[in-house]
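User: My collaborator sent over this chain with a note saying "see what the structure looks like." That's all I know about it. Can you take a look?
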Amino acid sequence: MTLHKISITAFTVLSIVFHAQTKKEMSKLIQNEFQFADQQYKILMKGIPNDKMPQSYKSSEGKVITKDISWWCSGFYPGSLWMIYEQTKDPEIKKEAERTLNLIEPNKTFTRDHDLGFMMYCSFGNAYRITKNPKYKEIILQSAESLSTRFRPGMKAILSWDKMADFKAPVIIDNMMNLEMLIWASQNGGTKKTGEIAVTHANTTIKNHFRPDYSSYHVIDYDVNTGEVLGKKTFQGYSDSSAWARGQGWALYGYTMIYRFTKDEKYLIQAQNIAKFILNNPTLPEDKIPYWDFNDPKIPNVPRDASSAAIISSALLELGQYSKGEDRKNYVDTAKKMLLSLSNEKYHAKPRENGGFLLMHSTGGLPLNSEIDVPLIYADYYFLEALKRYKDWYL
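Assistant: Without extra context I'll predict from the sequence alone. Here is the result:
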């Protein structure tokens, strides 16, 4: 398909997006989105050096922002490429996906923080799922062993970051996402230990990370030897007591995923209660794209976070698989509304714009004055994953 034709198709998507009520229309929208992604990522790949990974785009300079392979987001670009290839079978996309896997393979022995699941499972996990290449499986298993070295028995959790000025032994809610690689590895030829670590970490997080309303703190600071909670804080949210939007997405996704592997009802109940907090929150906008923090007092005059919507929509679609009746309907309908909003021109890039990224208006770290109202590679990743999940499960 030519760029000219994909341009017309993309605008067609945007014009019908809020009227896509039937399965046939949703199927067409998803097909068009993957075709659009195919063309956009061919633009994105031309804007990055051979030894870097794309992270964001600075429109004022017309420049793709890139990071080294040890950056926590290094797996999202190859993972997105594999999902695009799966839908389009474009050999150029596959070639780039394979190149980037080779680039990040050294991360399989990375042990300096907890993000190895993002880095190696979002990338090699998708690659192995699609190709069944045994090399990719071995890399995942080795990566899981590397991540397991971050487990601290005294606090019964995986240490997110090494000691920092304000934290002794911090564990962030984001870490729930990295458990997927550990538990998958334990069930697919790896050691039993990695799965046990994942479950232990999930249990510790349930105990210490959540408030009575099932919103999550961002950072729990521990005594690494005794497991005593030293503080409940934030690093990227509005305040220690606020509900940072992406953190709520990580929590929802994480416990839904843990239930998938364990079938332990307490994780399903936890995920459903987190979903209730998000979906019933009075600050969740009509279009279902959250503000960057649910408790910012300046709402509605604050940035949205498209990445949170992408993560939450993907999680809700999986949660719908394990739920019944009105709950299932609510999860799926809300996820669909999020996908339709993200596919609308308010959040969706125009053809050949946005540096090749798919989505606009994500917020990385507002208190850090970092990545505010920009495209982000993980927003694209979870958007594509949610589209695939909708296609696979609800069409």
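A starting point for your reply to your collaborator: Residues 25 and 295 are 36 Å apart (CA to CA).
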